[in-house]
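Assess the record.
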Amino acid sequence: MFSQRRIVIKGAGDLATGVAVRLWRGGFPVVMTEIAQPLTVRRTVSFSDAVYEGKTTVEGIMARRVEDKGGILKALEDRVIPILVDPEAAIARALAPFALVDAVMAKKNIGTHREDAPLVVGLGPGFTAGRDVHAVVETKRGHTLGRVIWEGSAIPNTGIPGEVKGFGAERVIRASGAGIFKGIRSIGEHVEKGDIVAYAGDTPIPAPISGMLRGLLHDGVIVEKGLKSGDVDPRDNRESCWLISDKALAVGGGVLESVLTAIHRMDSGED
């Protein structure tokens, strides 16, 4: 029943990947779009890494970079999620998807419209259900995480990451300077506070706290000083580096709910 209802997801970072995995496992064909140089930090659980590597696998599901509609259709036939470099998700016009999900996480709407598909969903702040999208899924941790909003907006962005063992903004690795990014430590390694984990040009980037290096930008990305470049998890659990987060799964569950609700409404003649 769901195999003919294609869903396009703008963005392929860690939250977008949680959405894609929930939908894919639920039987929906998923197509994802990305920018030419994704700035994803949690690369081991993000399909965006296929842009650099050609293909990648997250929790047993493979994604493959493709170049056009033909590549998309071949990937779906091969039971692989296609990733297309297409920042505006222009491919949606050719695919005529049932749903479009804006998972760019720009904290503002940078070009998504309610007319883009029969169902348009925005993740987090920057969207208003009933105006520029049909539904919004809450992305802020707490009792409302993953809830579907059919009228109104998500909680405004605070710019402060959720706390883990008492650490919030402190666990984010930021570029100490500008230049070409080069990691010298790997995701899944334990680091101590002050250890050099990467370089921005010739400027070393230290770990802000001790813990597990859970995320790091891809080598070769051009960074500006202050750009989020990595993530240290003080819980020091190596296995979690390869598991989609509880937050991403909760948000993905909200998107899946919105899709199933829309299908029910349309099939029952409510809309």
Observations:
- The longest helix spans residues 246-267.
- The chain is about 20% helix and 30% strand.
